[in-house]
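hey can u run this one w/ protoporphyrin IX containing FE bound, need the structure tokens asap thx
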Amino acid sequence: MSEQIKHARLTRMIHMGLALAVTLQMLGSLLIEIFEDTQTGKDILLYHQYIGLVAFVLILLFWLIVMIRNIGTDPALLFPWVAKARRAMIWAELKTHYATLKSRQIPSFDPHSPLAPAVHGLGLLLILAMAGSGTIYYFINTGDPDAGGLVGVVMFIHTTLANLVWVYLFAHAGFAVLHHYLKDMDLREMWSLKK
Ligand code: HEM
Ligand code: HEM
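ok here u go:
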């Protein structure tokens, strides 16, 4: 097993809360659709709004932690896009992974990979936009998500980004579970409340 990054307990706690909240939101959104125009659908939408507001607070805390913590991933690794050398490293890693996949093998987990933290950084941006658009909706809505004007714009952003959140959730959690079972990494490191 490769040597895994030990994330600080606060990072792990916020990650856990956010991962659970986002997963609940995504599954809940399916129920909202199934029970559309019924009292159950309205009740689930109410829970969706409250859990969404919690997710918004958690993502703000995650950003704050990333900016001020001493232990954990360097912010330059989470947001490498402005540095040409870092972009080149990510591109090189993508090409290596493509070659590995072409030879019908699974790319191994590398704790020093520049690609993984870059994707995590995109995840932080995505969830900020998702929970942020929902929160703006909460404060400006008139009770109808299908209303036009600013409510319409905010809901358009929210529902469009929902597709990317599915991709992120499946890819990020999927790779984590896959590498856990391949014994490349231990999920219990990130999902632990121990010091
Ligand atoms: C959509 C919800 C989620 C978001 C926004 C999210 C976001 C993140 C971020 C930003 C990091 C990097 C933390 C850092 O470097 O400080 C991370 C790491 C990690 N996440 Fe998630 N995550 C989510 C869901 C999940 C789920 C459901 C799992 C497991 C099944 C998971 C497993 C992990 C693991 C194992 C790491 C550590 C990876 C490493 O050390 O390289 N995440 N996640
Ligand atoms: C990270 C947090 C959140 C996630 C992952 C999330 C996810 C989703 C998803 C997947 C949908 C369904 C999109 C579609 O119809 O294709 C949705 C719809 C919606 N969300 Fe969120 N949401 C979050 C936060 C919020 C917040 C904070 C609010 C408001 C307080 C909110 C209010 C709504 C509303 C009003 C709808 C439309 C429901 C309908 O179809 O009538 N969401 N959300």
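The chain has seven helices and no strands. anyway lmk if its weird
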